[in-house]
Design a protein that fits this description.
Elements lengths: L2 E4 L4 E4 L3 E5 L5 H14 L8 H6 L2 H8 L5 E8 L2 E10 L4 E9 L8 H15 L4 E7 L3 H9 L3 E9 L5 E10 L3
Parallel strand pairs: 6-7
Antiparallel strand pairs: 1-2, 3-4, 4-5, 5-6, 7-9, 8-9
Helix pairs in contact: 1-3
Length: about 180
């Protein structure tokens, strides 16, 4: 976390200025770091395998950061630190699949997730996608509430295996995107 000096108190406090943007190849190490952090500390919310992600080369991480017409990875930064990520990838001609959503614990409940959700929706709609699909673990009520507030609806429920080895009911959501 970036720190700033408080000239009035002589104390250091978190830099609360957040910028959001699409990641690029230069963000590969930061993307690797936040993904591995997420899988280590919050693995119950991810289906990715930590060992497989750890084995990825830096070139593979750089490729994951490069925006194409079919995919993008979005990030929120506190200073130079990547503190939140979200991904989008073409599923079919009119549908985009969302994934890789994670906000570092110190930055939760600060609207960063909502900013990235809106950025991701705008990106998808601008590319002609009319529908987004994604999964949320059933016991992740906060994420479900945020997405339902933005118009997402459950269309399927099924058990999935998560990075921590658990199997849990997972909600498949569909969200219609506005052009």
């Amino acid at each position: 976390m970036s720190l700033i000096q408080n000239p009035h108190a002589g104390l250091t406090q978190p830099d609360t200025s957040i910028t959001t943007r699409i990641l690029c190849a230069n963000d590969a190490q930061a993307l690797r770091d936040i993904r591995l952090h997420a899988l280590t500390h919050d693995g119950r919310y991810f289906t990715a395998d930590r060992a497989a992600e750890s084995a990825r080369t830096m070139n593979q991480w750089a490729q994951a950061c490069i925006e194409t017409c079919d995919r993008a990875m979005f990030g929120a930064f506190a200073g130079n630190e990547l503190v939140a990520i979200m991904g989008a990838q073409k599923f079919d001609k009119t549908t985009v699949r969302y994934g890789s959503a994670y906000v570092m614990p110190a930055f939760r409940r600060s609207s960063i997730g909502t900013k990235l959700y809106n950025m991701r929706d705008a990106w998808a709609a601008a590319r002609g996608f009319t529908t987004a699909v994604f999964t949320i673990r059933a016991d992740n009520q906060r994420s479900r509430d945020i997405q339902e507030k933005q118009g997402a609806v459950v269309f399927k429920i099924e058990p999935l295996r998560f990075a921590d080895g658990s199997i849990a009911e997972t909600m498949w959501y569909k969200k219609y995107l506005m052009p």
